[in-house]
Amino acid sequence: MTATVGQEQLIAAIHEEIASFPGDAGVFAKNLTTGEEVAVDPDTVRPTASTIKVPIMIELFRQVEEGTVSLDQILVANEENATEGSGILRDLSPGVALRAVDVATLMIVVSDNQATNMLVDLLGMAKINQTMADNGFANTRLVNRIDFDVIGEDPKNLAVTTPRELAGIMESIANTTILSKESCDGMLEILAKQHYRDTGPRYFPFSPYAEESGKPDNGLRVYNKTGSWSGMRADALFVEWPGTRYVIGLISEGDTDPRFWAENPGNRVLGAISKHIFDYFGGDQLAPLPPLEDYRR
Questions:
Q1: How far apart, in Å, do the first and last CA atoms of the chain sit?
Q2: Which of 37, 41, 106, 168 could pair with 115 as two cysteines, CB 3.0-4.6 Å apart?
């Protein structure tokens, strides 16, 4: 596809953002309404960090369709699946029992690492990887369950993917091509509850609680899963508003700031790249959020 003048300007802006960043980054986006694609280094294999949790969720719903597991079956947080890092189960009493769908929700919305291990143990790492390969995502592979002693300092020892495949995985859910509509709707319902919006959507005019709280709503909907590791960030998003739907995968590496905080340069550069693409696809025409005073109770 020949780039338009507008897309050439967009690509130049993305390169400028990356040039100002201490590391490197890649992005792939596809407008599902028009078919237009935007790509900067989309096929370099990079670490996933916690974006690999989307393929794990897909495999859960696939095995539910297959009839080998149930969303209602009970899983127990215990010493065998305990781990460090993000999430809430590590801070609860041992032996907490949850439905599989609730474990998946924790894995996605608060990136719970123990919940992730519970599902990997249930589903099988080989089956997670096979489902990705069977659906055309040959570079997306879970290498280890979450065990930081085994993974060490290299996030590729957890899992790998490419920006193009991250976006493609989100497209397969958005367009209900990977599983049934019921399953894809169930996964989107979980992704919509995401608590971490400080990467891909960080500069969007987006309020996740506008609709339910009766506040002004510009129609923007975001379904995403972030990934964070020392020195790298990632995000996989499906974004839609009336008349427009698109997916995007973003990964940065080489960040020199080791802190896990919202102002990490990796979060900011991916947020800036994401906002350029959001505006290019027409998001800059959406109504801005009302001033903060309008939300005070």
A1: 50
A2: 106
Give residues with Cβ within 8 angstroms of 18, minimum separation 6: 24, 25, 40, 269, 273
**Burial state string for 267-283 with b = 16 or more CB within 10 A and e = fewer than 16:** bbbbbbbbbbbbbbbeb
Q: What is the pLDDT of residues 198-224, one digit of tens each?
A: 999 999 999 888 888 888 899 999 999
Contacts of residue 32, Cβ cutoff 8 Å, sequence gap at least 6: 171, 174, 175, 245, 246, 247
Long-range contacts of 68-76 (CB under 8 A, 24+ apart): 69/100, 69/122, 69/123, 70/100, 71/99, 71/100, 71/101, 71/104, 71/186, 72/99, 72/100, 72/101, 73/99, 73/100, 74/98, 74/99, 74/100, 75/99, 75/100, 75/103, 75/118, 75/119, 75/122, 76/118
Q: How far apart are CA 176 and CA 274, in angstroms?
A: 24
* Helices 181-191 and 100-109, packing angle to 10 deg: 50
* pTM for this prediction: 0.94
Contacts 24+ apart (CB under 8 A), 81-85: 81/114, 81/117, 81/118, 81/121, 82/114, 82/117, 83/113, 83/114, 83/117, 83/146, 83/147, 83/148, 84/113, 84/148, 85/113, 85/146, 85/148
Q: Is the pLDDT of residue 1 over 70?
A: no
* Cβ-count burial 27-49 (b if 16+ within 10 Å, e if not): bbbbbbeeebbbbbbbeeebbbb
| Interatomic CA distance for residues 231 and 255, integer angstroms | 4
